[in-house]
Amino acid sequence: MRFAPVVVLSATLALSGSAFAETSSWTVDPEHSSAQFAVKHLGLSNVRGEMGKVTGTLVYDDKDVSKSTVEATIDVKAINTREEKRDAHLRSDAFFDVEHHPNITFKSTKVAKAGKGKLKVTGDLTIREKTKPVVLDVDFPGTPVTAYGDTHLSAEATTKINRQDFGVSWNTTVDTGGLLVGDEVSITIEMDFVKVKAAKDAAPAASVAPAASATATAAPAPAKRK
User: Fold this and answer.
1) What is the pTM of this model?
2) Segment 23-71, tens digit of pLDDT
3) Fold of 21-195
4) What dihedral angle (degrees, nearest 10) is formed by the CA atoms of 14, 17, 23, 24?
5) Do residues 192 and 54 lie in contact, with contact meaning Cβ atoms separated by under 8 Å?
6) Where is 29: in which H helix or E strand?
7) 121, 114 Cβ separation under 8 angstroms
8) Do residues 126 and 101 make contact, with C-beta atoms less than 8 angstroms apart?
């Protein structure tokens, strides 16, 4: 029984270690994710549009969500407001200059709880290579759903930015003296995250014992007597 305390201590450490979940890695599913925006036209109605493909990653800590991180990249080349001439203008140097700046990126710097299923995610937003801090209000149920062999998490993030801060500055005055395009832009990003499956441990190679030598060493024959 001298070794019982060691056994108990080892078992306790093993159990306590298993209680701490490791962070998990997730990727954005572009087919079920999207980014939309809305901006005032003539100070009256909202012009709404959608960006292109959304890609990104999530490192999720389900025990302490504040230790989680998220990154996203949004394709601007495929911007769509259902008006071809306006879309061409938005892709031009007057707005996004997609030839030189095809993507918008976001990288989190802080994640904080903001109520049940709510998060405040602070991070760096980059548009036209100008980076500014923004805060996203995020609906994040945090409950995974498994379908067709994959595990999913969802999030919906909203924020408002001033486009002038990012060099998206084109505008013109109208007859009454107001501006054609508003400066405040509302952004909504909906993301479906798919859990990255852990790689299976490779089966250990079978050890092959060295074959025994099949050649027997013959004992020397006794010398004949003369």
Assistant:
1) 0.77
2) 999 999 999 999 999 999 988 889 999 999 999 999 999 999 999 999 9
3) Lipocalin (2.40.128)
4) 20
5) no
6) none
7) no
8) no
